[in-house]
Amino acid sequence: MMVLVPGDPLRPRRPDEHFAAEAAAARGAALEVAVIDHDAFVRGGDHAAAVARVPAGRDAVYRGWMLRTEEYAALATALAARDVVLRTSAEQYRRGHELPGWYATVQAATPETVWTQGAERSDFDRACAVLRSGPAVLRDYTKSMKHHWHEAAFIHDVADSDTAWRVASRFQQLRADDFTGGFVLRRFESFTGAEARTWWIGGVCWLVTAHPDTPGEQPPADLDPTAVAPLIAELGLPFVTADLVRHTDGRWRLVEIGDGQVSDRPATTPADALITALHTAAG
């Protein structure tokens, strides 16, 4: 298995500083590491040149910055021209990265959710009508703006269509060109404590960590990811993360799934813990 990481923008032959520890851990585990030009896929550069330093004829796992689905597909195509196969295909990446790809499978364990295709007001109003009334949390297919909670994430009542649309408009303004897919409305549920991030490789939970937003708050001892294991296994995806948080009624709820290649590792989890999990799972 080879690990691909983005290059440093100023020193493109070196790993980006954010992923340097994982690159070093991979080399320490006798894994091959190659650097790619992430920006070429995001900004429309030369894709062949972006992967020119990747040795041919390998299978690979990417650990890097988030890519849109079409950008990841372009990366997979450029690598395939060098006979390099990503362990997560472009279609698998889409299903793990975008909420509509995973919601139906885990519906029983996650808040009720509806979404639009695109950003038209009429479609947004119809989505609100499905939830009928009550509070909701807004996001798009890949990301929320939870750090702008009151202005661009939390909708007090989906039945108040004008106020809800103001939140949606502000969300789209803040996301700008990063807005992905459409609006997603998730019924608000009351949670307590910090989220925990679980890391799944081949449908098996290999690692439980703090969430990157709260790296100092370690998961409680009673967190048992086996409760969602059948759902994650049913997804059939090679490498994903699942974020769990405790509901005020005591249940653990699944609030996010992401492709593991672009899921951030909390600063309190050593890089070699993740690399060891990937290496061991690969056999």
Automatic annotation (TrEMBL):
ATP-grasp domain mapped to chain residues: 134-278
Q: What's the protein here called? A: ATP-grasp domain-containing protein
State the Pfam families in the record: R2K_3
